[in-house]
Design a protein that fits this description.
2 domains; globular; Glutathione S-transferase Yfyf (Class Pi), Chain A, domain 2; Glutaredoxin; alpha+beta
Length: 210
């Protein structure tokens, strides 16, 4: 398998999960300006919209959406429990988290990361909405170490990859969206707990993130 990624982008999430599971996956870096891959391909041939992550499977099939890639990878090693079993209430809860992170957090960052394109109106509406979503996440983490409770899942890896786009001294920020997390103590504790995971540290180091 090959994982096409951009350093510090949302593709950090499946990169982390690869290390958590000990999977043999080849990393292929994508230049975000030219949309060419380090092995010489036009990335638009793999991803029509130029988005990462993309997971190219050994049988020639390609997965292009982060939540689907995360679940696919975790299901390769079910004993490690990065996703609950299919057909269970817990699996639905995981998918609920992935859907929330994808639509409310990931999408919510876009106007802040591309403030010039979004314009003042877009930023003024996006920032308080994203702050409200993160305040809610902070409250959920008040009595649990991970999003799903005591068990670490792929949802944590996804949220970690996005949260580092914000601003706080404890973040490994690369994009620096105009949203600050210093007042969210439970989120900070969760983030620092995530940073101590060997798989997270390996992925950050491989992508050149501090």
């Amino acid at each position: 398998m090959k994982l096409y990624y951009i350093p510090g982008a949302c593709s950090l999430a499946p990169h982390i999960v690869m290390h958590e599971l000990g999977l043999d996956v080849t990393l292929v870096k994508v230049d975000h300006k030219t949309h060419t891959t380090e092995d010489g391909r036009d990335f638009y041939e793999l991803s029509p919209f130029g988005y990462v992550p993309v997971l190219a499977l050994d049988d020639g099939d390609v997965l292009r959406e982060g939540p689907a890639i995360l679940q696919f990878l975790a299901d390769l090693q079910p004993a490690l429990r990065l996703t609950p079993d299919g057909g269970t209430r817990e699996r639905l809860r995981l998918q609920e988290w992935l859907g929330f992170i994808n639509s409310e957090i990931h999408k919510g960052f876009i106007p802040l990361l591309y403030a010039v394109a979004a314009g003042k109106y877009g930023v003024e509406h996006a920032k308080p909405k994203l702050e409200k979503r993160y305040a809610w996440i902070d409250a959920q983490l008040a009595d649990r170490p991970y999003l799903m409770g005591d068990t670490y899942t792929v949802a944590d890896a996804y949220l970690f990859a996005l949260t580092q786009w914000g601003q706080a001294p404890w973040l490994a920020s690369v994009y620096r969206a105009d949203i600050h997390f210093d007042a969210l103590s439970h989120l900070q504790a969760w983030y620092l707990r995530m940073r101590e995971r060997p798989a997270v540290r390996l992925a950050l180091a491989a992508e050149g993130l501090k």
